[in-house]
Write a structure and sequence with these properties.
It is a single chain. The protein is α+β, with helices and mostly antiparallel strands. The protein folds into 3 domains: 202 residues, Aminohydrolase, N-terminal nucleophile (Ntn) domain (Glutamine Phosphoribosylpyrophosphate, subunit 1, domain 1); 235 residues, HUPs (Rossmann fold); 59 residues, no CATH class. The protein has 25 helices and 17 strands. The strands form 3 sheets. The chain has a 6-stranded antiparallel beta sheet.
Length: 601
Amino acid sequence: MCGIAGIINFNNIKVKKNNLELMISKILHRGPDGENYWIKNNIGFGHCRLAIIDKSSKGSQPMKSYDGRYILSYNGEVYNFKELKKILEKKYQFSSSSDTEVVLYSLIEWGTDALNKFNGMFALSFFDRKRQELTLARDRYGIKPLYIFKNHKIFSFASEQKSILALPEFKKEINFSSVSEYFTFQNILSKNTFFKNLELFEPGSFLKYNLKNKKFVQRKYWEFNFRKNQKIKKEKEYIEELKNLHEKAINSQMVSDVKVGSYLSGGIDSSSITYIASKKIKNFDTFNCGFQTKLVSKKEKKFDETSKAKIICGYLKTKNHKFLIKPKHIEKSLNSITYHLEEPRVGQSYPNYYASRLASKHVKVALSGTGGDEIFGGYPWRYPTGLKINNYNEFINKYYELWQRLITSNNQKKFFNPIWSHVKTQNNKEIFENIFKGKNKKINDDLDIINLSLHFEAKTFLRGLLLLDDKLGMCHSIENRVPFLDNNLVDFAMSCPADLKIKNFYNNRGKYILRKMLKKNLPKQIYTNRKQGFSGPDNSWFKNQNKNFVKKILNEKNTIFNIIDKNEVSKILENHFKNKANNRLIIWSLIYFNEWFKINF
C-alpha cells in the first residue's frame, strides 16, 4: 500500500521536484518504507511505499518498463496478479515478484481494458512517454482514494487532499454546496469536496490526458448492477456457490509478505472472514474494540460487542487483541481523525480509528468486513419496503426523506442562515436522484425497491466507509483489505435474487444467504445475531462525560457560526442535553466540522 502524487504543468515549465516532495511529505504515513520520484519536463510523479508484496527495491515506484517508455505510480493490491503474470510472461520478462510490475505490463498489453481484469483495489497513474499520454484510474468500488485538481496552470492528483492543498497553486475556498450536502446526508454523494476545485475521482473510471493536444477524456469502465433475477437454481446451490466464492476471496486477499490479521466485531461479516483465515493461519491475530458502558443507556450497552467477539475467539482459537474505548478517547483523537480523514464521512469514526491503531501494533495488513452489508442487504430497516410504493417518483420521495440524516430540507434555511445566499439554490434532492441515473425506473414490487436501495448504498454509504477504512488505516501505516469486495463475489451478489438477501426467516435481519452459509461454521448466537453497527455510546457520552467538551467547542464565539446559525446549534445541544432528542450524529458532525475549520483556515 502506498501514496501517490503527480503534477502536469500546462505551460510546459519543468515540474519542480520540491513541489512533489512537498506533496509526498504530507502522506508519508501511507508509505513509510521509502519514497521516490520521476520527472520528465512538465510531468512528474511522486510515490511513497508501504512494502507488502516483494519488499525488495525491485518493487519500488515509480516503476519504469524495461524500455523506459512507460511509467507507473500505483497504490493498491491486485490479488490476481499471479494469474495475469502467467499470461504476460509469454511476452514480457519480469524482474520482480511484485504485483506492481504485473499492473505495469497489463496496462502496456491491454490498455484500459486491463482495468476490468484487475481483481483488487487501486488508484494509479500511468504515463506513455512516446504518445505523451497520462492515464489515471481508480478501482471499481472506490477502495483506494484519489483526488484531482485543475486550474489554468496545472493538473494535479494525489491519494489524499492534503497533498494537493500543499501546492502553492491551490487556493483554499470552502465549497458551501458540499457543506450543505454533507449536513443533509452526513456524507457527500457527489464528486465534490469541502474545497472548491478539488474533486474526488470517480470509482470505476479512468481519465486520459494527452500532453500534445491537451485534451481530457474521462470514462466509466464499470458500474454496479443489482438486477432482478428469478431463481434459476435451488437455494442450496446458491449457498454452495457463495461458500466457494467467499472462501476464495478471503484466501486470495491473504497473499502477503508481511503479517496479516483481521478485525473482529462479533458480527457475521468479520466472523465469517476470521473463520476462513484462522483455518489457514494458526493463532491468527484478531482485533476488537469495546466501549466503556458506565453511565450509558440500556440500549447503548449492547453497542459493546466484546462478549460476542470473545465467543468467536474461543470457538476459532484466535489470538485476540482488544482495546476499551472510553469517553476521553473521543477528545484525544478528534484532531488526528480530522487531519487524516480530511472531510467528514459516514457516522462517527473514532471507533475505526482506534481499531486500526490497535491492529497496527501487531500486523501490517488487516482484513475488514466492510462491504458485506451493502452487497448482501444488511440494512433492511433502511430500504423503504412494505410501504406500497408503486412508482419511481414515490420511491425517490420516500427514500430521500429517509436519507436526510442530519438537517432536513425544511430546516436548511434556518441552519445555514449566515450563508443562505450561497446555498439557497443547492438542490440536494437532485444530487440524491442522480445516483439512480441510468437505472430502470419501473417498480413492480419490493424486490425492485431492494435492488435500487442496494445500488444507492453501494454508490454512497459504502464509498464513505471505504474512504474511512483507507485513511484511518493508512494514518497508522496499516493496509486494510476488504474480501467482500472481491470482483467475483460482488458479481454473484448483484445477480443473486433479492429475496435470498432479505427474508422473514431471520426476522427481517438481512443477509439471509450469508447466515444460511455460516450455519454449520459458527455458533448460533453469531449467525442469527442482529446487525449492530460499529458505533459508540456517544448519545449518553455527549450528555455526561463529554458534555463540557462539546459545550467548549461549540461556544458562542466559534468561527463556524459564520456558516451555521448559532441559535440552531444551541437548540440542537439543549434538546440533546435535556433528553428531548438523540442528536448524537449532528453533534459529532458539528464538532468535526469545527476541527476541520481550525485545521484548514
